[in-house]
From TrEMBL, chain A:
Transmembrane spans: 79-96, 108-124, 164-185, 191-209, 216-240
Protein name: Uncharacterized protein
Keywords assigned: Membrane, Transmembrane, Transmembrane helix
TrEMBL record, chain B:
SUPFAM superfamilies, alphabetized: Winged helix' DNA-binding domain (SSF46785)
Protein name: PadR family transcriptional regulator
Pfam families, per database record: PadR
Domain called Transcription regulator PadR N-terminal: residue spans: 15-87
InterPro entries: Metal_resp_DNA-bind_regulator (IPR052509), Tscrpt_reg_PadR_N (IPR005149), WH-like_DNA-bd_sf (IPR036388), WH_DNA-bd_sf (IPR036390)
Length: 251, 107
């Protein structure tokens, strides 16, 4: 009794994994495939021939002419990459305009940033833990080669330190940028302050976690871009102060 | 020479030929192909080929209950499948004859 129970369990687990590996195909097609495979799976003498669910799914896709799992993986990775680029660009621009008093751009930037964050969240959900798929994209490899060339592993260790330093440096910038933006919406200074601290803490935590779990990059990199946008704005402001055009704060 | 490479191009034809003799369910087709001498044929490739031929409208399917275990889904040729078998069979015979001629006495 016990043996047949555990046999049934592993049978069900196999079918579940197979369904998962074929999840992008129409439901009726997956049902038909499972129906085809089940008699062999139930026959202990020949069940092993099927290999793992992932192997079975891959070979079956190739023979049936279905899109391969890797095509889908690449597509998801590419969408995730472009959402990241879009989020980064939007955040940098949002940071740059964050102190434009009563400007429509600043008001619109908040919902746009929120929308991009939702897209990031969704895309990372689709990608799961498979961030390696993004790193394997040809465009990412080329970019990496151009940026780091023959960077040795020791240099990459230094890079990690730079990343940590950047997390600390950007904290006040994110704080200031968020504060400026929140004030545009007429929030009182207490509420704006709490909100700004929360955003700065969350993005810094995301940045720290991204060192080990790369999924957090989808929150951390746009946050960094936001900080760069804010610092550019501050640089413009300070240069005007130095030149003596300080009479008007809306720069 | 790697037979599995050759098999890729003719698995459709082999599956059609097996089903023309007698309808069969998934693993039954695998077994009959191996009995016929195609022992390198992969289980998953046969399942995938059956689904492709079915989706292309060359096969019919029906379910038969089994005393021993889960029900079995049988596949059989329809008219389109038989036409395809005839066409692909003619192509294969022509190809095989050409290769035999080409190899001649040297092989």
């Amino acid at each position: 009794m016990n043996t047949s129970d555990s046999k049934k369990d592993s049978h069900d687990a196999y079918i579940a994994e197979l369904r998962h590996a074929l999840a992008d195909l129409p439901r009726a097609e997956v049902d038909a495939i499972v129906e085809d495979v089940t008699p062999q799976l139930a026959d202990a003498a020949v069940a092993e021939e099927l290999g793992t669910p992932a192997e079975l799914a891959a070979e079956l896709r190739a023979a049936a002419g279905f899109p391969t799992g890797s095509t889908r993986r690449t597509l998801t990775a590419r969408i995730a990459l472009w959402v990241l680029v879009l989020a980064t660009g939007t955040a940098a621009y949002g940071g740059f305009i964050s102190n434009q008093l009563l400007s429509n751009d600043a008001r619109y930037s908040m919902p746009v940033i929120a929308l991009v964050l939702v897209a990031s969240w969704f895309v990372v959900g689709q990608l799961g833990r498979d961030v390696a798929a993004v790193e394997e994209l040809p465009e990412v490899r080329t970019a990496r080669k151009l940026l780091f060339g023959a960077a040795s592993s020791r240099m990459l260790g230094t890079l990690r330190l730079v990343e940590l330093g950047w997390l600390l440096a950007r904290f006040p910038l994110i704080l200031i940028g968020t504060l400026l933006l929140a004030v545009q919406f007429g929030w009182n200074s207490g509420m704006a302050g709490v909100f700004a601290v929360a955003v700065a803490v969350v993005t810094t935590a995301a940045g720290y976690r991204s060192l080990t779990d790369r999924r957090w990059l989808w929150l951390s990199v746009p946050a960094g871009a936001w900080a760069i946008g804010v610092s550019l704005r501050l640089a413009v402001y300070l240069s005007l102060v130095v030149e003596g055009h300080i009479g008007y704060v809306n720069v | 020479m790697d037979v599995s490479q050759l098999l890729k191009g003719v698995l459709d034809l082999a599956v059609l030929a097996v089903l023309d003799k007698e309808d069969g369910y998934g693993y039954d087709v695998v077994r009959r192909l191996r009995l016929a001498g195609l022992d390198g044929v992969g289980d998953a490739s046969v399942y995938g080929t059956l689904r492709r031929l079915y989706n292309q409208g060359a096969l019919t399917s029906y379910v038969v209950p089994s005393d021993e275990g889960p029900h079995r889904k049988y596949y059989g040729l329809n008219d389109a499948g038989r036409r395809r078998l005839a066409e692909s069979g003619a192509t294969w015979r022509g190809f095989a004859a050409t290769m035999t001629d080409l190899l001649g006495a040297n092989a």
